[in-house]
Amino acid sequence: MSSEALKRASTLEDVARVAGVSRATVSRVINGVRNVDPAIQEAVRQAIARTGYVPNSAARSLVTRRTGALALVISGSDAPETPDHHVGGEIFADPFFGRVVSGVFTGLRPLDLHPVLMLADSAEARDKALTYLRQGNADGAMVVSTHSRDPLPAQLLAAGIPTVLFGRPPTPLSLSCVDLDNREGGRIAADHLTARGRHRVAAISGPLGVRAARDRLSGFREAMADHGIHQLPHVEGDFTREDGERAMTSLLRRYPDLDGVFAANDLMAQGALAVLADHRRRVPEDIAVIGFDDSSAATAGRPHLTTVRQPVEEMAAEMTRVLLDHLARPGRAATTVLFEPTLIERQSA
Amino acid sequence: MSSEALKRASTLEDVARVAGVSRATVSRVINGVRNVDPAIQEAVRQAIARTGYVPNSAARSLVTRRTGALALVISGSDAPETPDHHVGGEIFADPFFGRVVSGVFTGLRPLDLHPVLMLADSAEARDKALTYLRQGNADGAMVVSTHSRDPLPAQLLAAGIPTVLFGRPPTPLSLSCVDLDNREGGRIAADHLTARGRHRVAAISGPLGVRAARDRLSGFREAMADHGIHQLPHVEGDFTREDGERAMTSLLRRYPDLDGVFAANDLMAQGALAVLADHRRRVPEDIAVIGFDDSSAATAGRPHLTTVRQPVEEMAAEMTRVLLDHLARPGRAATTVLFEPTLIERQSA
DNA sequence: ACGCACTGGGAGAGCGCTCTCCCAGCGTGC
DNA sequence: GCACGCTGGGAGAGCGCTCTCCCAGTGCGT
Questions:
Q1: Looking at beta carbons, which residues of chain A come within 8 Å of B348?
Q2: Residue B204 clears pLDDT 90, i.e. is over it
Q3: Does the CB of A62 sit below 7 A from strand D?
Q4: Highest mean pLDDT: which of A125-134, A141-150, B88-97, B173-182?
Q5: Which tens digits make up the pLDDT trace of A204-219?
Q6: Chain A nearest-CA residue for B317
Q7: A342-344 and A306-309 strand pairing
Q8: How far apart are CA B328 and CA B324, in angstroms?
Q9: How far is the CA of A32 from the C1' of C30 (A)?
């Protein structure tokens, strides 16, 4: 209204003065707490409009001890920071990341919350993230922790920060988490491959330091053994497409008569597909390929990937809901929500 | 230390008491402001360690008027929210998003800052984002605004929120921005295609409501005209792989003798490649394909895409630096940083 | 010996909000 | 007619921090 509007944001005090009431009443109207006379309510609303008042959230969180922010922590393995690579490049390039973000937004949309993104890809970054959280910059944390010996979940627990994990930690913690039944996923892949009559089968696993990767592999191995196949060529990959290419190349050289491959994620399966195309192997006729995740990579190339679906978006949304629930009702026991993998049958197997 | 550590976080006051100094002195030590006697400094540090003190950032920002958070706003076109789709699914699935995030982290890493992610994909979400920013939840905003008539940049300017844009707005605003010389990128694609002897060429553009898409197309058209080619079949896509497939299919039906295609991003080029494979067209022998971006999609399939590189990570990092600069020195004039596209020659053209 | 700049620490006033008290006014039951 | 609940508004005490003053002590020049 006046020229001072330019220099200084208006405060509750200003609104109260304009409306001719006390600060407390304005606060009541804004937060919808207790009964306030309709006429006064209207006067306050007009005063707010006239002053262009916007509540200051720092002041608010100082007293409420709530920030209205949730952290989404990507706690990867310690990434070597090469000069030509950008921070977290490989993590963010993975469709998995986008799916998690999408799911988190789905869970957050109903409320007025926004995630603050943190990358904890080194001991230093982890400490900073922890400090940041302890300073009360966020009300809680959602942690996508890949590496088994990641200390962050335990640290968050110790710091008393409400936390939900994407993926179960290797040793149980009293933290809530959402996860996929990865072992079952591996089994599904094995069953499908053998049902298709494949018996000379190999696996491209994820990094064995990652629990999900281990579970997928052991589920696959178990089911294969159930089908009488005990010899299982195996190459460890790092979940990137490039590594899928490398793994497939090495597999092809060592076991030229392979007729089936299970890759622990779609990106590596895509890499395998590319190498197979280079070698003029027909998929699925000569060699069947089955991926994992059902990410956008599955239908990016030709043939479309048959894959074990992991409903990442749903899982991330659920993780968000669980965290919100913990914030709403503190002191509730930790829960684990396990999702079931499903087979998505396309062309590659 | 004591049992009260459990119930109440320690404050400056506590540290001061333990160290036997005043609050002000503790604050000085923590913030490294003014000279403090080394002995006292040490005493304060020990007191901090003993009390497990962590500064409360809400209290701090209340007085400093700084939050230490920057917003990364993805202000897309109004997305229809279908029940089966997750929020922002397509945006987050695009490698572009991950590259932006990676670049932002690169720019933020040196400081202790984390981006808070906001999705402004509807008028309502935009209002919420604006409100959030006006409440002082972040010190500034980085906006990836795609759609031409997106009102958000102007609103942020009006609200006096330090803002940097990824991509120039259609009508100049006094906001800083980083962008690619998209027109030049289109030209590069045209020059390369004609240098390869392709004359029956078509374009798959991005949505013409997006300035970058328009610029790429007009640059391409201009250069083609320079080479004597004035007839240019054109299909508008929406930057997704699926739409690339759809566009290529339609192009192939209408112009079966095409020998070159320019797709305005790699995702659509990848879709085109898949359709060409389905039609048994050899790339690049029968038909050359050139993409745009040089994202991970470029080398995902076979053949590898020849593409016009947009250094998204560098651009996002620069956007972050520009914003930090504006925050450090308020009142500086808005700047525009223009990046040059480069040709990355691979197999598809 | 005195004044004076300079160094380093303390006191205390806020920053803008919430929330607990407290209290005036009013209807109700006996 | 009076005590009593009940409704709705105001006063004011913080939340935990920063930062401006202010002031004591020290070393220096003259």
A1: none
A2: yes
A3: yes
A4: B173-182
A5: 999 999 999 999 999 9
A6: A86
A7: antiparallel
A8: 6
A9: 38
